[in-house]
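Newbie here. two chains, one complex. Structure please?
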Amino acid sequence: MIRYCLKRLAWTLPTLLLASLLAFALLHLAPGSPLEAASDPMQSTGPGSAASLERFRHEHLLDQPLWKQYLDYLGPFDLSERGHPWFGGSGERAWGGLLTGDLGGEMLQPGVRVGAQIAKRLRITLPLMLVSLLLGYLIAIPLGVFSATRRGQRSDRAITLATFLLYAMPVFWAGVLLQTLFGRRGLEWLPVLWPAGAGVAASDILLAAILPVLCASYAVAAYVSRQTRASMIEVLESDWIRALRARGIPERQIVWRHALRNAAAPLCVHLGQVIPVLVGGSVLIETIFDIPGMGTYLHRGLIQREYDVVTGIVLVSALFASVGLLLSDLLHAALDPRIRHGAR
Amino acid sequence: MTLGPGTPSFARVERLRSFMHGIVQVALPRALGRVAAAGLFLVAACGPEEVALAQTPKPAEQAPAPAAVAQKPLAPVVADAFYPGFDPKRDKLPAPVDGGRVVVHLPNFPKSLNYMIDNSAVTRRMWNEMHEGLLRQDMATWEYVPALANRYEVLDQLVPEGGDVTTGKEVKIGHIDDAGDVWVERAVSPGRRTVQRVKIPKLPGQRLLPGTVYDFELRQGVHWQDGADFDARDVMFTMRCLKNRFVECDDKRAQFDKIVRFESAEPSHVKFFFAQPYFLARNLFDGMPILPAHLYDLSDERNPAKKPGASDEEQARFIAEHPANRMWVGLGPYKMVEWSDTAIVAKRWDGYYDQQNGGHVDEIVWRMMNDTAAMTALLEGQLDFFDRMKGEDYFGARTESEAFTSRYYKGYSYGPQFTYTAWNMAREQLKDVRVRTALGMCFDWDAFIASYYKGLAQRVTGEQFLDGPAYDKTLAPLPFDLERARSMLAEAGWYDRDNDGIADHGGQPLSIRFLYPSNNPTSELFAQAFQANLAKVGVTLKLESLEWGAMSAQVHKRDYDSLSMGWITPPVVDPEQAWHSKTSQGETSNHAGLSDPDVDRLIDEIQVEINPARQKQLFSNLQRRVYALQPYMFGVNVPRKFAMSKRVRNLECFVLDPGYSIRRWYVIERPKK
């Protein structure tokens, strides 16, 4: 099992490199650059001079071929003017790049490191994501089981309709609805935006997190409940379940102890698929609820063409997806002895 | 209820607007008359401009400015003009109360709080509260009042043949008048009275450069917010940075390069020398981004990171990466305490030198959020001030709801900004002025203003602020006249030769690519209506909506036929960057690529003309010349639409950016219903 895990983790590295290459290439091929994106005339009293733009491009290697820019991003040699002497740099900043664990810096805010920013913002996004995931599964599994055990009945049809509706509901629309319902325009129960300013109490943050968590978890719940229902129906119709019933084992025990355990294995596979969706959804949710997390950082990075920001977040998301898939495989193996033994 | 023409609220707003405009239309000519008189007086006397002030700056004590045309207020500023149930003429504002906090919307975070290297409007807005300049342009009166300067004097330079203003070699400095046969140097008393006149014989090759030396006496006892003393070292260091080609401040450097020499003989005195008169000289000293030398100057003994002999490049990099760029240490009444991911927070600072103007609220929170979230925040009561309301929100049901009206009121004010469509004059089909003029007649602005803007927009015919002193209101805009447009196009050789409905010339159809920013419904509506009208005269307008970064890249490359944009300007803007031929190529703000000798000559004359009457005439001539050439299809000035919390009082709407001054606001308890 350990060898299997190590092998999987080893595959993560080329996956990440490929993700960084794709993100890097796509971003650079898109029109615009950080300086152009930032020189919004409505926000600036005037664009920088041609010389200033040229200097900026030169400093950040934007005037260099794409392969050189990528190698600089990849590291471990810094290829800029201040970079490694082997490549004509001053040696002031010889090493750097992804291979040294450096996700780069923001071009428009010199001194702001992308890695530190992502780490800071993950402290907000990650708990929100995990709680949403947990809540989604906690709602979905009983709902799916309930629906499967009442297959074809009115309650099953109602749940099916509700989950389809929830699954089809766009996150941004649901977010605005939740804000309207629970905010001051509605029930006045919950804050609808993330608190800001000095000395915000933890309780305020917890309260402000409720709606984003709801918003992120309903789609997970809808999707996973459909999968649970399908898996459960398949299991409940199997011969060995019929045998259990023939032995007179109570139905409740059959459903929750025997059938669910078998049906849960495919659900673990979905865990790996849900995590990247949650990361993507965090862009919308964090923008709606004004949360200073990774999603808003990605949004800003895209708007301002901060290459290192976007590539860094793509890498972190890819890492999450890889880890999620690994976890789902391990869980799958833990729940299904056939896979466990096969792995050995 | 909606606020549209015919509704009671609209009528009330319109009454206020006409009241304000009445003031502008009646008071402005009088004010300008005074300006002109002052200008003539100044010219006749070549007057001394020594300014002596008490500790608290008072506009009335200012010496008249040579470029007064650029500095006179338009109209009295009415506080709380839109406050519900408050009549500024009848009612008195409640007494100011100290304390509380206000939450003000920011559309985006600044890249840095160091205005030297971040030229954004948001940085400038925060600097208004957290920092000071040598001079400060009073938001209400437009006068430049000494801020960090205790007093200042404007002097003249007499340059003999062989003299050099860049080194000061053989240059005579003082109050010097041209008295015909001789120069007259006047000694002036602190009360600005001439006490002695000395005749200086005129010699061949001598040049008088009036108003080209600014001599500042710095205020004593002013401290940076970390406790360090402010003195001439900070100003000198700032000037060295502005001259350092590696410091990312090219936009400012272009103006500060007009200062050819600067010196400080003692810690409380600084002098600046211009090579020729500059009509916006005072503006430089208002906008000078003074940096704390003890933190930023690598050659300063007090700097913990001092590095004697550091190169210009090292110094520039040190400035660009300094942590104080985010945790700003300034000289203003508010001190930065937090830069989080959602907000920038500043608290009132007791060490500010001018406590009487040191603000009322204890804490300012600049909350960064997109406009959609900001509207939600307003409806949730989480913002106090938001000045980027869209028309659909301003006139829409959401701002008429109880959730809104119980906490907020809304209003608008005109500032120096305008929209335009730039024609790329390098394009073959747009080279002929008749074509551009014809295109300018193909949009019904009056209908668009009435329907889309609900009347809250004004057409402009020039780049200067339409209610400002450099704008000529007598220049009528082009009419909406498709027939005339068609005949002008035909005169220029563009008419439908092959009966396909498209005008053509030399075998080429008249087709224009039109760039506009995506996610901008106004631009989109405008573009579609314009396209429909142009089709009627045989012109194909190909619409291309691009996300800003992509559009900007094309703008820099000048890869467009036409583009829709907007400018926010100072009330009086130096026209060089928009129209001068030296900016007609490359990545400049001359988006039309205008290059015209008459325009160049007028701009050059404006820049050195300090006689207000002549300057006004030159501005008018320039406006007419540019409008005749139609490099832009000038659009409209759309007012800033704002929502303000009812618990905050004394909101004054100014022309100068950002249009308000937080330090004047105070928070009162919310009035009971």
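Moderator note: Chain A touches chain B through 50 residues (CB under 8 Å). The mean pLDDT of chain A is 84. Thread marked as resolved.
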